[in-house]
User: What shape does this take?
Amino acid sequence: MRRARASPERGPDITGAASSRDGFPSARTKSGVRAAAVLLVLLVVVVRSRVGSGGGVGVVSTGVTRKIIGDGGVEAIWDVPPDAKGTVLALHGCSHDARDWFPMDTSACSMCRGLAQELQITNAALDAGYALLAVSSMGHCWSQEDVPRLASALDTYHEANRGMTRKPLYVFGASSGGSLAGLLPRVQLPKRPDGLIIQIMAGPTGGGLDAYPPTVMSHMPKDARTAEYVKASIAELKAAGVKTVEHVLAPRRITDTFFAEESSGRILPSESAGLYVSLRDELGVLDGDGHLTTDPRAFSDAQVEKLRTRVDRSRDSLVPDVSDVREILNVAYAMHELSAQDFTKNLQWLIDASGT
Assistant: This one.
């Protein structure tokens, strides 16, 4: 149940913390963001489902369910374990979508592709007893125009899993998804978030912060610009009385087992060892402690081709956004990448801080 991701793009900030970031224009959030109360009449098409959701209001595990909702074609995919304690809403980064969070399964979601870090988060949420709901953005990245689509997805999810409406909703978003997560407490949704994990993105600032739930600000300090925005957001959230914690994603040491561990075994131990040898001896991009000295997004075609010889190309092409290896390299370099590191710890912090 694994695969990968590796995107070079930082998503646009749609919270208003920064007027423009990394070449992406971003809208400023106004205190009264247009509400998403008027929801579409939903035309729900079940694309793949393992088991029906059953009747009554109790939570019934249906395995992975993928639905395309309404005329706008909103994609929502979820897995609800038995006696689920609540829901984790997962918001992807730019160039990605909901299919990254679930494995390809011909009986449940033949279009899912499952990326390494996203799948670790899905598994961690399920292991903790929480459902994982992922929704796809309308465009390349998330924007404020996605709020009504997200509301439709939540309505459909709650209709199919009615017991979840009374249980907590925590939101994890990275990059562009983190920007949307920071906006959600300011807009009208079918259910208010009980906690936020905003990763590798500037957090909310400005008015109305006193209504925010407990928030984890998770970032990679090597990205100094985002780190400054995170520092400012934490200060404003705390000043507003919001329980807030900083979570630092530091560079990771690469060993011969690192890729196998970070892919939960999808990358074989022999492949992991081979990648380590190539990085250390052929590419010469590891220091004496095993840390990357070069941004892997800047690797030349020749360097990438050397790494390709170490893995089964039918399982990992090393193409950005669909490669375990590329995603895990970005996590190790720790400039800007979605990371599963400490997700369970951060989720537990939200649970404790929110009292839900």
Summary: The chain has two domains: 20-250+338-354, 258-333. Residues 214 and 267 are 36 Å apart (CA to CA). Residues 20-250+338-354 form a domain with the Rossmann fold fold (CATH 3.40.50.1820).
